[in-house]
Amino acid sequence: MTDTHISSQPHRAMWLIWFLLFAGVPALVAWWEGRAPAADAVRTALVQHARLRRPTTAAPVVEPVELYSLDRDQARAFNEAVPFSRLPNPAARPFVFAGSEADLARATDCLAAAQLYEAGDDAVGERAVAQVVLNRVRHPAFPKTVCGVVFQGQERSTGCQFTFTCDGALTRTPGQAAWDRAREIARAALAGKVFKPVGYATHYHTNWVVPYWSGSLDKIAAVGTHLFFRWRGWWGTPPAFRLGRESIEPVVPKIARLSMAHQQGIGEVAGVLLPGGGDALAALTARPQEAIGTDSLGRIMGGVRLIAIAPGAKSFLVELSKAAAPDSWPMMAQTFCAGRPECRIMAWRAGIAPTGFPLSGDQMESMSFAYIHNSGTGLQRALWNCQQNPRENKAECMRQRVPTVQVETPPPLTGVRRKERFETVKIVPPTVPVTGNNE
């Protein structure tokens, strides 16, 4: 009987077959399935490349805001039919304000006013509005300052970029707590805090109106009942938002009663530099700070009666003594402003003093004396109302308001504008089919 040896090792051909089954087939499947994503990636890259080509034409023109004549249901149906853009929606770069303390104060209050009157006392909505304003400041189609963007078109009776600046809404005074919250949000935005959901949006509207521009921009986000849009093509991409901005913010008299930073005659270059120059200011700010709080209201301090204290205890409203001579009024700074890097005093003669903030235009006009200093910029000035107390040196006189032509505005509305506010219809409806009950 003969023994036969059978090898336990597979044939070399079997090794090749197993390799093809376990390695080749999965690789082939992966290659086949990867063809579509690769093609999509190529198409996306080509689209992105086209979008990033800077056009030779000028930036888009910003026209007065006009709305199609649609009722709320029609407008909502129209807006719902407009799809969101499928292109990326990157977050905007942080915006860090660069300018003087006075300019920062004006920018802060312009931004806070836009937030509060456009979105109401709603932190999320206010942050979205603030981001749109700052996006516009960076874009070449808009003014180069925060206040310039917010109050663009304010001289019109209708069609301004932010409706509250020309429709009479500013006749309403927000609550102090809401105003303080809006200013905090504005300060954060100007210090680099970004609201990412709206990306580089430069336009928005509520979902129950249809602005004329809504069909020419990309819809990129929704926040509450507001829809946000950006320019199409290169003008809506991050490279378009690199325009140098101005650091000198204009004074806006329309919000002077809300903002001391926008009150005429205070903090302006006009005025007299107090004796002693920078040394006197340095000595004053180096002195111990007087404890002045709400318990001091109504008390006589430094020869005057304290009426009100602004948040942060940097500004004070006071009533002057009948016996004090006008030349002695600057001495009250020794009491109120010692130890404070920034300080402002607004004073009225007895009998005409306001009861607190905010101040009306007439109250600003009747102010008798003002003092301001800022140790960071070296500013220290005193100003008199020369219609009440004539001064030989006209540089010591407050600037008086310039009379303006009154334009007819709608009747005052109650409360600060909320998101449910219905916008005024301006032009004829578009000839587009709208689903739903349109009769």
Question: Which features would summarize this protein structure in a list?
Answer:
elongated; alpha+beta; 7-stranded mixed sheet; 3-stranded antiparallel sheet; 10 strands; single chain; Arc Repressor Mutant, subunit A; 2 domains
Protein architecture, described:
With 439 residues, the protein is α+β, with helices and mostly antiparallel strands. The protein starts with 11 loop residues before the first helix and ends in a 55-residue tail after the last strand. The chain has 9 helices and 10 strands. It has helices at residues 12-51, 72-81, 101-119, 123-138, 146-150, 176-190, 277-286, 333-336, 361-365, and strands spanning 203-206, 218-223, 226-230, 272-273, 300-301, 304-309, 315-319, 342-348, 369-374, 379-384. Strands 4-10-9-8-7-6-5 form a 7-stranded mixed beta sheet. Strands 1-3-2 form a 3-stranded antiparallel beta sheet, covered by helices on one side.
